[in-house]
Design a protein that fits this description.
Radius of gyration: 12 Å
Order of helices and strands: EHHEEHH
Number of strands: 3
Helix content: 40-55%
Strand order of the largest sheet: 1-3-2
Strand content: 5-15%
Length: 80
Amino acid sequence: MIEQSMWLSEKEASEILRVDEQSLEVLRERGYLKPGSHWRSSNDPTQLPWKPKVFYFISGCKEVIDSWKANSASVDQIAA
């Protein structure tokens, strides 16, 4: 089992959090997932500055996503 305190790739995070990768990106771009607390960019110099890989802190993201689910908010509603 994957520990929730781990930083995971976008693909792995989407599987664990049960949201698609596009939804994670929308949540990040809209500011619901905060840099440093919920996600961070790869520091691989071959990926900078255009499209670095993003890694997500699972427990932090899970709190945000669970609160939306509890309040019946969907990612589609947030993205609208």
